[in-house]
Amino acid sequence: MNRRFQYVNILLLTLLAQAFGQQSAQDWATLVGQRFRAVRDVVYRSTPQGDLKVDLYVPYNKEPGPTMLYIHGGGWQTGSKEQYVLWYLPYLQLGMRVVAVEYRLSGRAPAPAAVEDARCAFLWLAKNGAQYGVDPNQIVITGGSAGGHLALMTAFLDDSMDKACGIPGPAPKARAVVDYYGATDLLPLVPEDKPHRSKWLSGPYDPVEMARRMSPLTWVRPGLPPVLMLHGDADKSVPYSDSVRLGEALSKVGVPNELVTVPGGAHGRHTWTDADILRGQRRIEAFLKNLGLVAR
User: What confidence score (pLDDT) does residue 111 get?
Assistant: First the structure.
């Protein structure tokens, strides 16, 4: 077994045993291994830079149900599908399945590769997920930072990139998006002194046009899935105004949305207080309950 996966499993089980103080939560932590299994490194796409894979955390009984498609962050430059495994736990506790996505980082391929990969992962899951217990009509997409950006793009895109995925249509529609401080306007990243400019926006194309195409704000239109955004108003990496602007644009065309503001919150959930994390999680739960995706 891959040593990294062994380490992740040991850490996961250890923290599960420590993290929950109430009896009901302790019972859940004890029984989660009875309910869910990890299906690792399933190839969803082959690219010139290598195969791309997903990890699925799904029920043994394969009963179809709502699923969170989780896209990791890292400025399109770093991160992995295994890195944020502990953040998947609240969704499993709600009874959802979780699918974590690997995508090409900027060191392997520049934009629009990551967006294309995330979209292909979603299409693959909608077509193939039933065998693992995934209801294709109940897929929510989430992520933080670059992962939040990719979650929004995956849900907002039309079918213009879908041909590259090699998955027959018609393209499904995401049920909702939960976006943690994802960039919604990439044009400010175009200047060469910006940290992500030289890598992710470095392909053989006009960087201004690519930044525009890769901005979720460009794709806002009626009929998009509901969006829940969580963002700290002291974020120095992705401006809080990105989420404000997206919310205003969505409201203007009648797309349900909500912005949860973390007062004084910096970039990254790990920097927020426990109270802020829990408040955000309660809003996510209410959002999912209102959509009929988890039990009230």
Answer: 95
Give, rounded to a whole angstrom, the gap between the first and last alpha carbons of the chain.
Answer: 39
Task: Say whether 254 sits in a helix, a strand or coil.
Answer: coil
Read off the pLDDT of each residue in 116-126 and give the average, rounded to a whole number. Answer: 98
Beta strand 257-262 with 50-59 is unpaired
Residue 117 above 50 pLDDT? yes
What is each CA distance from 206 to 117, 123, 201, 209, 213, in whole angstroms? 21, 28, 9, 5, 11
pTM here is 0.91
**What are the chain's domains?**
3-290 (3.40.50.1820)
Q: Report DSSP letters for 51-67, one per residue.
A: EEEEEEEEETT---EEE
In a 10 Å sphere around its CB, with 0-12 CB exposed, 13-18 middle and 19+ buried, how is residue 24 labelled?
Answer: exposed
DSSP state of 214: T
pLDDT over 70 for what percent of the chain? 90
Query: Which stretch of DSSP H or E encloses residue 23?
Result: helix 23-35
* DSSP reduced 3-state for 107: coil
Note the pLDDT of residue 93: 95
